Amino acid sequence: MTAFLHLSNKLAEKGHEIVFLLPKKALDQVKPLNLYPNLITFHTQSGGPQFFKTGSVHTISIPHVKGLPPGAETNSDVPFFLTHLLAVAMNQTRPEEETILRTNKPDLVFYDSADWIPEIAKPVYAKIVCYNTFSAASIALTLVPAAEREIIDGKEMSAEELAKPSLGYPSSKVVLLVHEAKASYGGDTRALVLSLMGKLLR
């Protein structure tokens, strides 16, 4: 979220107004980094008005889903192997975010993992930008397949399943080995990231 706020500051520097959607728990982390409180609005949970006065603070809540620790709202609240459940929870905020977009009619929407954002931004003619601060390979190899599996049958993926790239994955070299997939599901994300980076640099 910090990267999104840095981007927001750059846009606000040029006079753009920003509505920043984030979980309530993350507000305390990023609020001190807001260099333009008169232009950057934080929205963190449901309830209250849906049309935002610039510089105000509102709220958006992340629902609990089975398997997530109580109160989990951000990736820092959960071990790496549960991040797909956080994505499932975030998907449940779609109706609220759709209302926000419909009411505020933004010109531009930046998002990271919610693949339905383009669909809800289209009716308000907003341009969309998928903005990620980690590698596309990491998303394609772990987060996307695991989230899809959770939605389909509610089961976690095994390391062996994660080691098999999804249909359409473009590389035969930047893939997880079984021991790397086990490391990712065991919470050792550093090993996973270093391994993928090494393969990308070869």
Number of DSSP helical runs: 9
Distance between the termini: 30 Å
> What is the percent of helical residues?
40-55%
Per the principal axes of the C-alpha atoms, what is the gross shape? globular
Tell me the count of domains.
2
In percent, how much strand structure appears in the residues? 5-15%
Average per-residue pLDDT, rounded, comes to: 76
Following the backbone from N to C, one meets helices and strands in this order, namely HEHEEHHEHEHHHH
Q: What's the oligomerization state?
A: single chain
Return Rg in Å: 18 Å
Look at the helices and sheets and give the structural class.
mainly alpha
Number of strands: 5
In order across it, which strands form the biggest sheet? 1-2-3
Low-confidence stretches: 46-50, 187-202
Most strands sheet: 3 strands, parallel
Structure characterization notes:
- Strand 1 (18-21), helix 2 and strand 2 form a beta-alpha-beta unit.
- The protein is mostly helical.
- It is built from nine helices and five strands, in the order αβαββααβαβαααα.
- Strands 1-2-3 form a three-stranded parallel beta sheet, covered by helices on one side. It has a two-stranded parallel ribbon with strand order 4-5.
- It has two domains: 2-61 and 93-130; 136-201, no CATH class.
- The protein has helices at 2-13, 24-30, 83-91, 94-104, 117-121, 136-153, 159-162, 178-185, 189-201, and strands spanning 18-21, 40-43, 57-58, 108-111, 127-130.
